Amino acid sequence: MAAVLPSSVAPGKGASSRQADTAQRAELEAGLVRLKTSLSTYLKPAEIERVEAAFAFGDAAHIGQFRVSGAPYVSHPLAVAEKLAAWHLDAQAIIAALLHDVMEDTAITKQEIVDRFGNAAAELVDGVSKLDRIEDQSYEEAQAENFRKMLLAMARDVRVILIKLSDRLHNMQTLGAIRPDKRRRIARETLDIYAPIANRLGLNTLYRELQELSFQHLYPLRYRVLAKAVKSARGNRREVVEKILQAVKKRLPEAGIEAEVMGREKHLYGIYRKMREKHLTFSQVLDIYGFRIIVKDVPTCYLTLGVLHGLYNPVPGKFKDYIAIPKANGYQSLHTTLIGPFSTPVEAQIRTAAMHHVAESGVASHWLYKDDKALSDLQKKTSLWLQSLLELQSASGDSTEFLEHVKIDLFSGEVYVFTPAGKILVLPRGSTPVDFAYAVHTDIGNHCVACRINNELMPLRTELHNGDRVEIITAPHANPNPAWLGYVKSARSRSNIRHFLKTQQQELSAALGERLLSQAFRNIGAVLADITPARWKHLLHETGSKSKHELLTDIGLGTRLAAIVARRFSGGVNKELGKVKTAERKSSGPILIRGTEGLAVQLASCCRPIPGDPVIGLIRKGQGLMVHTHDCANIARQRGDRVDWVDVEWEPDVDGLFDVGISVLVQNQRGVLAKLTTAIAEGQSNIVDVSVEGDHGTTASVYFTLQVLNRAHLARVLRGLRQIPEAIRIVRLKDREINHHHH
C-alpha cells in the first residue's frame, strides 16, 4: 500500500531539475549497490541477476512517477527490498518487494509479472496489492476489504505480511511530506493494525519502530515533550545505572557464568501508554531501568537468575518465566524485577542467543537462522494463528466485522490456562470459560452450560487468571446464549456466537412465521398447505421477497404482519373470502409456544411468564413475538390497539427452564439463608441469583431468581419454602420489582 499516490506531474526540464535527476539517479544506483551487496551474503549470483532485472522492470514501469517528497517513485520499493534483505528473505520476496506497487500504480498486469518473474513472485505482489475501490464503498469499508484480502494471502504465505510491514515502515519513515490529516489517518491505522501484527509475529524491533513513528505523527507535541523529559531523566540516572551494571558484570563471572550484559532503553510510546493506562506520572514510569543478559544455554538462564536474586532483592510477584511457557509470538526470556541501590527498581531479562534472535525478529528470523528448533515451533504457532484468522473470515460475513474481530485478537495481552489434561491454552487477557470452550473446539463452545475453575463450579462469565485449570461441562441440547456476547473476549468465540445466532434466528423465525401465517390464513378461511407454487410465486413477487423462507422469516421477526400478507394473498384469490363470518374467524385457535424458540419468541422481561401462566402475544417490528402474562401492567397500557396482538398458549408438554423471581420475607436468624436454599434445591429448582436487603433488623427480604419448569413446579417450590418456620411471607415477583430492589 503506497502511502503516497504517484503524482503524474513530470518535473520541468530546466537545468536544475536535470541535476536533481542526476543526483536522484546516483542515489538510486547507490541503493541498488547496497541491496546487491547485502544479498550477495546469502543469495546465488543467478538470483541476484533476477533481482536486478526486477529493479529495472519496476524502474521502467514507474517512470515519471514521483513521491510527494519529490523522490523518484521507485526509491520506495528499493527501500522496502533493502529492509527485507536484512532479514535474508529469498529472491522471490525481494523481487516482489521491488514490484509491490506495480500492479496498483501502473498499467502492468499480474500476468506480465508471472511471465517475467514466475508465479510465486506474482502471487506475493498480488497479496500486497489493494483491491480496486468499488464506487459506493466508504474509505473504511475499502480498507477493511483490502486488509481482509491481505490476511488471506498472508495465511497462504507469511512473506506477504513481511513485505507489507516493511512497506508500511518505509512509508512511516517518509510520512513528513504528506498532508497532516492523511498523516494522522495512516499513523492511527499503523498503531491499530500493523504494529500489533508485527508484535503478534514476534517482529519486536519493527513493532517498536512502527509504534514510535505512529506516536510521533499522531501526537507530535506529546512526543516532543516526552522525548525531552526522557533525555534529561536519563542523564540524571547515569551513575546508579553504571553501578548496577558493574555489579552484575562482576558477579556473574565469579559464579562461572559467561554473559553479555547490556542496558535497555525504554521506548517513548511504551512510557506514554503506561502513563495513560495506569494514570502514572512521568517519574513513576521512568524509575524502572532495564537491562538484558544473554547467556549460552537454558540451564545458565536459571543459574543467572539465582545469582541476580542473590545480588539484589527481587520484587515478589514480578518474576515471569517465559522460557517454560513462551508467549504466543514465540518470545522466550526470564523476567525479574530487582530492587537496586537507592531502591531503584531494575528490570532484568535473561535469555539465550537463540531466544534473542527470535525476540528481535520473530518469524523473520526463520530466514536468518535456518537451523533453529525454537523457530519451527514459532512457525507452527504463526500458522495456527493464521488458520484461526481464516476461520474468523469464514464465520464473519462482512469485512468490517472481520476487521473488528481481528483487532480484538491482536490487542489483548495473554492469559495462560490449563485444560483438565494439563495442556496449556493461551487466551486473550480477560477471557472467560466461554472463550476457553471455543478455543478447545467450536462444538464445545456451542454446547457449554457450566464450568469448573480449579475444581470449583463457577459462572461462565468468570474472568480467567494465569494458571487456572478449566473444565467445561456441556449439554447436547444447549445452544449459544446471546448474553455471552456481553463478556466473551476472543474474536473466535464472538464470531462463532454471532454466526450461530444469525442462522438460528432465521430458522426459528421462519418456523414461527409459518405458524403465524397459517393462523392468518385460517382467519380468512384459506389453508396454507393448499397454496399452489404458482400462487406462492405471485405472492413473493407482490411482497418483494426473494424466497418463501425469507418471507416467513420476516413474518416471524415481525418486520411483516401475517394478517397483511394473508389479505394481499386473498385479495388476489377471491374478493368474497374477505366476508368470512366473525364466528369462524375466532375459531382459528391460538398459536402454541414453547418459550424455547430462542430469538423468535421472547418472554417479556416485565412480567416473566412461565408455562401455565395465561399469556398473550404482541408482535413487535424486528423483535418477533413478545409474550406477556395476561395481568402484566405493561400490557394494560398498550391494550388499545389490537392490530398486533396474537392469541398464544403454552404447548402442553413444554420442557425447558424458565426464570422466575420470588421474594421471601424472613425472620433474620442465623442459617436462615441456608434453609431457604436447601428447600429450593430439594424442590429441584436452580438458583440463578440471590440478594438480601435490610438484614440489620429482625426481618430481612431475600430475593431469588429461580429456574422452574412451569407454574406447577413453582407452586411445589413455594410449598416447600412455606414449611420453613422463619419464612413470614413469600410472593412471586414481576421483574420490575426485582430490578428496583437491586439498585
UniProtKB/TrEMBL annotation:
ACT domain: residues covered: 661-736
Domain HD intervals: 73-172
Any Pfam family the entry gives: TGS
Molecular function as annotated in GO: GTP diphosphokinase activity; guanosine-3',5'-bis(diphosphate) 3'-diphosphatase activity
Assigned EC number: 2.7.6.5, 3.1.7.2
GO cellular component terms, A-Z: plasma membrane
Alphabetized Gene3D superfamilies for the sequence: 3.10.20.30, 3.30.70.260, Beta Polymerase, domain 2, Hypothetical protein af1432
Location of region: Disordered: 1-21
Domain TGS: 413-474
GO biological process: guanosine tetraphosphate metabolic process; nucleobase-containing small molecule interconversion; response to starvation
Keyword annotations from UniProtKB, A to Z: Hydrolase, Transferase
Free-text function comment from the UniProt entry: In eubacteria ppGpp (guanosine 3'-diphosphate 5'-diphosphate) is a mediator of the stringent response that coordinates a variety of cellular activities in response to changes in nutritional abundance.
Similarity remark: Belongs to the relA/spoT family.
Protein name stated in the entry: Bifunctional (P)ppGpp synthetase II and guanosine-3',5'-bis pyrophosphate 3'-pyrophosphohydrolase
